[in-house]
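User: My collaborator and I are trying to settle a disagreement about how two of our proteins should look. Neither of us wants to argue from intuition anymore, so we agreed to look at predicted structures for both before our next call. Could you fold the first one, then the second, and keep them clearly separated?

Assistant: That sounds like a sensible way to settle it. I'll keep them separate. The first protein:
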Amino acid sequence: MTVKVSVILPVYNVEKYLKECLDSILNQTLQEIEVICVDDGSTDRSLEILREYEKKDKRVIVLTQENKGAGAARNKGLAIAKGEYLSFLDSDDFFASGMLEEAYRRCVEKKAQICVYQVLRYNEKTKETVYDKGSFKKENAPRKDVFCYKDMPDHILDSFQNWAWNKLISHELVKKYHIKFQEIFRTNDFLFVASCMMLADRITLLEKKLVYYRIGMSNNCQATNYKFPLDFLTAFYAVKDFLEKNNFYSAVERSYVNKALAGCIYNMNSIGDVQAKKAVFDELKKDGFKKLGIEGKNEEYFYNYNKNNYKIFREISMSDFDEFMIKNGSRMEKRQFLQNKYLQVKSDIPKVSIVVPIYNVEDYLEECLESVVRQTLEDIEIICINDGSTDRSMEILKTYAAADARIIVVDKKNEGYGIGMNIGLDKATGEYVGIVEPDDYVPLNMFEDLYLKAKEYELDFVKADFYRFVTAANGNMQLTYNHLTGMKEKYNVVFNPSMEPEALTYVMNTWSGIYKNEFLRENHIRHHETPGASFQDNGFWIQTFCYAKRAMILDIPYYMNRRDNPNSSVNSPEKVYCMNEEYKYIKEMLSGNTELWNRFKYYYTWKKFNNYMFTLNRINVKFKHQYILDISQEMRQAESDYELDKSLFSDMNRKRLDMLMANPEAFYHLECISGTSNLERRVAELENSTTMKVGRMVMYIPIKIKKFIRRMGKK
């Protein structure tokens, strides 16, 4: 039998796909073929499968070698090939049934030395096929049936990929010029294909999808390219050397340089291992770009598909590896890089100190502590402040402290949340500080994720969205996602809270983030120490926003905030004026700095009003009337002191505020007696009432007088 096509198949550990590959070759409509299979030292059943096919079909020839890579295997097959044309296939891919016949017929009809055909990518996971446009850029080719490199010198090397398996190649051409594959593990076909494309006088295109390129496997060449990260550069250097020695380079330089740039960025991006990626980065930056002819070319030299690659080339040229990875790595690569950079560094101080303030939470404490001690960030200290618990909380703490040396327990008399928290903050030695309330819990990756983000951007604090939850009677958890802000554009970007007072509109909590310890200490940021009071985290929260220069909020929910603990201060109806005392404390702190106070005072009042409304809904009904009278006076005083900007309020809250200030009795009737279902309608009615108008007039005269006095004082 005269062999029309020799199919050369390098085989290495592909037992899962090998039969499909072999069947696609042996069932070709073109029967006059030989199939040379070269086992490259497989350690699975691949060789056994090859022997089975060799016994069944005399066209199958099996060769073996030690593991040297596909390049060496293909050369071994070339050495015995008898076919008029050569076809190559990777052993995890497969042919369409008429591929060889159609490609061979095209070559014979056009007397072509090379036939290039189209490729379909076959996704192993989804079983979907997608046409690979990049491997068949017909628009770059001349409008003729047969051509050579001289007909398309600016695109000959970057239009049809450097794959051997999407081409049928004349055996005579290969023998005449002694063309061989490079015996390297990756990109071993580029020199072979480039040599054939440059030396062939007659190339033809077949606009049919004839080969399936399997993707989505875990063990293919691309998945293990970190083992030989510089092989592709060896191939590109060799191709350039070939072009220069044969006086081709000047004619096809632009095509080669564009191919080289795309190849460099693609190969570096495809490497997941950080150290392997760094080896490529260092080689390219050192002299790789220069050797490849990329250095010195301006942006216009590169084709449109390379515009982004050119930007990356510029970034590599001007950055160190750390900077580059932070800007350009994939999410997994970036994380691995940050872990290597920040978590592997040994230090005498913990990465994060976690403060847990505790008072009578025996029902929830173990769940909380389990979530903290099992954090993926292991370099932490856990400071538990027992504020005079009278239940089993202290017993639970002792058990955990005995089992984990990272736990520090402070047992003190009951003095309140603020004092306990400040003791914890004073004891914290970590680079960053986090807070976990003892009836809440946190996912195991929370502190590692937040720490890496804080280090990456050198943040004073980083905070994230969170969940609130209650446990239903049947034991099911009911979750509510809470965004820190409704403005999507504010997430995942560094901002300066000290210059952005509108950030005080974000949802207030101290526990969904971490704070740089040095930042807290330099700005003396601590909690209000009023014995027995609640909501003392408000002052701490506002201080962090007023003083921080670099912060970020993340649109990822981590923290799990319990809302069904009956002993929580949130659910304490007797604590009436704790919030008011806290805001007096906050004003005293901020007003000591005139510039700071003037910047934040309007948003301070906005925040205060919203928290007063929260308090009004929370407290016992018997206190509501007097509370409304008191906060009405307080808000009128804020307006009189030029601390109130009503334009910051929503329409609904502005109407509520106006009613509260002008007619607190009517406000009480609406909010606490009639209910709120018809609130908007009643607000509109009262706005037009005589009582409301009189109230506005009562406020109008003193405000005008005060403004006049202030203007006269300035003169």
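The second protein, kept apart from the first:
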Amino acid sequence: MTPSERAGRAALRLVDDPAAELEDLLARVPADAAAAEVELVALAARVVGAAVTVRATGDERELQWAVPVPAATRALLRRATVWLTLAAARDAARDGAVAEAAETAVVRDVVERLLSVRDLDQVLLSIADRTSKLLDADICGVFLREDDEVRMRSCVGNRVVETARLRMRRGQGVAGLVFLTGRPAKVDNYLDDRTITQDFVSLAVQEQTQSALAVPLRLHGRLVGVLEVWRRRPSLFTERDVRRMVTFADVASVAIDNARLHDEQAAAVREMELAGEALRSQVAVLDRSSRLQQTLLLTVRDGGGLPAIARTVGGELHCQVGIYDTRGALVASHGGRDLTVELPGSVPAGTRAGRTTLGGHPVWTQPVHADGDRIGWVLLRPDGISAEMMDVVAGQVAMACSLALLRERAASRARSEALEQVLWDLLQGPVEHRIAARTRAQQLNVPLGGALRVLYGRLENVEELAADLGWDTSQTDRVRRDAVRALRAVDGGRATSLASLRGDFVVVVVSDVDRVQVRDLAVRMGAAVRDGSDGLRLTWGISRPHDDVVELPSALNEARTALSAAHRLGGGNAFLYEELGIVRLLLGSGDDPDLMTFVEEVTGPLLTYDRDNDGSLIRTLRAFFDADCSQRVAAERLFVHHKTLRYRLERIKQLTGLDLSRHEDRMRADFALRLLQVTGEPEAEGDAAGPVVRSASP
């Protein structure tokens, strides 16, 4: 518009021209659409000459009037309508931009806060709190996926505890619907809506919720959870609310992933720190245990036995140490720091390797093995030492004990093998070997002075026990070896050094023992074998005493004969050869019937006495038997007083050990006299053929 035109219009306004004023208004750009609308309605009413109203249709504005107007006026009003619509659209755009800027600022603040939080639980709580405020909701919850369901991990605004514990499968409730479809879902009236399941209606009643909106939490295209809000008041969630919540859910997903990564990184760091601490602890344990192992090996190398090992461990670790033998008895110990041993005197029944508790205190137990056999136990009671250290130390101490015992066993085995060689040279070697064996026995500190006896025994029920107890061959052989060890341990090994096992037969050579002592020794050896071998029985045959090692092969035959008598006659577990009587003649070998020995045992002392004392004991004994053991008849036939006869019979008992009142001893004496007569001893013939007249006994 030119200046002259504007001047003309100004002149017209002086005469009250509302159309001109309306034209002037439409030529300006209004600062505010609402104020412009008020001014426009007033001018339009003056132009029309009646009331004018504005109707909003969507984003458009329309002027309405009730009276007819000229076409020019109608055109002017249509222009006014367009002008008002544009002004309203401009203000709406401006207000929207301001609101978007404000919302963007809010979202930016929320994002910054979320990304600054590292703890996952704190992130979830922050998401729930910020979402509730952003959507002007009363309740907000964050569900995270766990396999085939989503579980509430964080919730704010709830009144019922069960809300914070919600779990939903696909299709259950609003969150379950999002879990099923992967798309946002909302309800305007929770109780009346039929698009969702009714699984949680009762909970909705308790919480008084009416509308709800839920969107998926996605990460790398995968649904990881659901974000849901509820309102207790009647309201509708708009598409703008959905867009805002989806945008926020995307940011929340990143924050959740960031927190998870942070937790994983923190866990990895903690794990590395723990691994480092464990490694340092293991290095310390290995360093200390290696020093202890070196000390123990030096102790064993220098010949230290079990007591030295106990002292070393107790001194190095300040712990109580107990070392036990095969039977579980304490053989070496050390009290550690306090020098007081509070360990049991024997290994408790049912003890197993590892950590246990005794008397309320932790104790480490470890078996000691050698040559495949368990030969003892080690018990350790620590004082301020870590369990890891004790696990290592228990094995090291057991190993040191094994080495020490193996060294002792090797020396003992070498000595045992040497003694066995001596034994079998004495029993089966030629004369020169027997004499040499006696010298070797003396070098091994095994005296062979005095009367020598051979004990020949048999392990009676090895195979039966093996079948009953399920022993295999190695276990059966171990039982046999244990039996020999038990024999050698009787009396501290002083009387039974020369002992050997072949199959199930045991041979022992003892010296300087009489009948009572050797029988007692046999009983004690049998008890030692039985107690250490689950009821193993041992039967003995025992030879006569012999003064020279050269006679030991004969002694072995005698012991075998006595063992045969034990098996045939029964009634005892130890039979002495000199007590067998004529039975030994029946059981003796064909190559050595031992007739002369039998005769000598009975008649030898009597012949010697008669020769040295001009006596008549042989004649008296013969007369006694010819008189059918009647002392009166025998005295008459010998022309002596009956008291003289009684005295002679008592002297015979003293010299031979035969009690003529016993039938067995009378039979032995009678049989010996008859054999003496058959063998043709000159002195015996004269004595036996003296003036004796047989008659029936009274």
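Some points you might bring to the call about the second protein. The first helix runs from residue 3 to 13. The chain has a mean pLDDT of 82.
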